[in-house]
Amino acid sequence: MTVIRLPDGGLSLHSEVEGDAATRAAIERVLLRGAPSMNEIAFFPSASRAMRGSIDRVLDRDFDRVSVTQDEVLERGGNTALAKAYAWL
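RESULT FIELD:
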């Protein structure tokens, strides 16, 4: 059995029983080929819509400088760098 934290904070328990439509939509499943006797599947929670909305609201602001905790300060191009970093959402 596998326990997965969903984007809304809920939990999904993976078992031999198929989940409901909302759970299937929230989790991308990828069959790992090459070892057929193992039937391994990788689970990836789908990108959170709430986080995408939050990032979009930040990117709507006019800023250039980004300071990341325990890292270097990006003096120029912060908005572009942040957009690039979160493009996967």
